[in-house]
Design goal:
Order of helices and strands: HHHHEEHHHHHHH
Oligomer: single chain
Largest sheet: 2 strands, antiparallel
Helix content: over 70%
Distance between the termini: 46 Å
């Protein structure tokens, strides 16, 4: 029974960080109806920022998010303004090709600067754990989960209580109606892309003490973010949160009870089963 609760808790902790990645992608999709296939590469840039801040300036990776959030917000806003905004009304395949191309530029740029060697961000607590009722809890994952929970709560407050947050939600629900109501939808798109990039960069910083850092790591997380977003319901922030936790638990359970090599297979089987019985995702609504 201890093994079950151990794997369940580990899944919830890593699932919280997955949720942060998925929320960023679903916000961008909700407002602009574009699937950002460069999302994992934006997260990878966040990992490298955390790594360099730690090795060059001694900034703790968890404290580095104070710097990474505004930097990645500006980066995301710039991407939207310079590239994504130009293909908002283009064919879906053109949008996909553009975001894939942007992701390739990011990963290859990082490879030119840092080479393809794996980097390890090793802190004094990277391998630390605490014991709670016989269950071992990874210290960096527990801190990451706590920070993720705080950011998610702040994000919900932003969307529910602020004028800008409500304008973004209105734009996500109906772009044309929001424009008719006087909302500057172009500005909301820039903010949404900035928020999505900031969340991805933050997730990268949070997992940097526990993952290898290399230029191609983004593609695996882009796929994971896509699965989380579709599983939770495209455009649903609550769904992405739930989807991230579900994926984390499925991965952890699959690794413990089947094999670590099969954990991704378990995730995709679960993903297909949920879509088979609820095609709009866990929290999504069918569009008519």
């Amino acid at each position: 029974m201890i093994v079950f609760f151990q794997s369940l808790l580990s899944g919830v902790l890593i699932g919280g960080v997955y949720a942060l990645i998925g929320i960023g992608l679903t916000i961008i999709f909700g407002v602009m109806r574009i699937i950002n296939f460069a999302h994992g590469d934006i997260m990878m840039i966040g990992m490298y920022l955390a790594y360099n801040l730690f090795t060059l300036a001694g900034v703790d990776p968890f404290l580095s998010i104070v710097i990474i959030v505004p930097v990645m917000f500006l980066f995301g806003a710039l991407l939207q303004k310079l590239f994504i905004n130009r293909i908002l009304n283009a064919l879906p395949q053109n949008q996909i090709l553009l975001t894939i191309g942007l992701g390739l530029i990011m990963s290859n740029t990082m490879m030119l600067i840092f080479t393809s060697d794996y980097k390890i961000l090793s802190t004094t607590y990277s391998s630390s754990s605490v014991n709670l009722f016989g269950i071992s809890i990874s210290e960096p994952l527990a801190i990451s989960f706590a920070i993720t929970a705080a950011i998610t709560a702040a994000l919900y407050w932003f969307f529910l209580k602020t004028d800008t947050g409500q304008a973004i939600r209105a734009t996500a629900q109906d772009r044309e109606a929001a424009q008719l109501m006087g909302i500057n939808v172009k500005r909301m798109s820039i903010i949404a892309c900035g928020v999505g990039a900031a969340l991805a960069g933050t997730a990268g910083a949070l997992i940097s003490p526990t993952y290898y850092i290399f230029p191609q790591i983004g593609s695996a997380f882009t796929l994971k973010a896509f699965v989380i977003t579709v599983l939770g319901g495209m455009g649903s922030v609550l769904g992405a949160t739930l989807g991230g936790v579900v994926i984390g638990i499925a991965e952890s359970m699959g690794a413990v009870y089947i094999s670590s090599g099969w954990k991704d297979v378990v995730v995709f089987i679960l993903f297909l089963l949920i879509l088979l019985f609820k095609p709009s995702g866990l929290m999504g609504k069918s569009r008519t």
